[in-house]
């Protein structure tokens, strides 16, 4: 698969997104809808941090929730019925750098990656139950659960650790 790369002042960005073709428009209240103020749209956000070695598959994992062209996407979406998902992959570069930082196609060499998955409260609780994970106590006004995965790329993490080590400062 080809993931477009966009040059920004700070570096390079790749994004992809997925919206469930039927359920998204049925289940998610559009903020422009006249009913938006009448319907509770509370969202519980749960964030996970992904760390690992370079080329460990972190970006592939994050991207899998938007890659609906993959033959296994139907299986994935039947296990975790996502209403919408978004993948963003970022590589920060010096302003003078012009070469696209690629490591393993189709991804740029990640400094920071992020995936968000929007699910209904009921679908999320069912997923937890089916996988023998204790259900979360969610308040009654919660309609959606937003899972957020943050990736710190292996090289970027190594640089952050190096820069935070007092013995490496001059």
Report on the architecture of this protein.
This protein is of the alpha+beta class. It has helices at residues 23-27, 58-63, 73-79, 121-130, 154-164; strands spanning 6-8, 11-19, 42-51, 84-92, 112-120, 142-152. The longest helix has 11 residues, at 154-164. The protein starts with 5 loop residues before the first strand and ends in a 6-residue tail after the last helix.
Runs with pLDDT <50, length 5+? 31-40
Number of strands: 6
**Please, how many helices?**
5
The chain-level structural class is alpha+beta
Q: Indicate the proportion of strand residues.
A: 25-35%
What's the multimeric state?
single chain
Mean pLDDT: 81
> How is the main sheet built?
6 strands, mixed
Overall 3D shape = globular
Name the strands of the widest sheet in spatial order.
1-2-4-5-6-3
Order of helices and strands: EEHEHHEEHEH
Helix content: 10-25%
What is the terminal-to-terminal distance? 44 Å
Radius of gyration: 19 Å
List keywords for this structure.
170 residues, single chain, alpha+beta
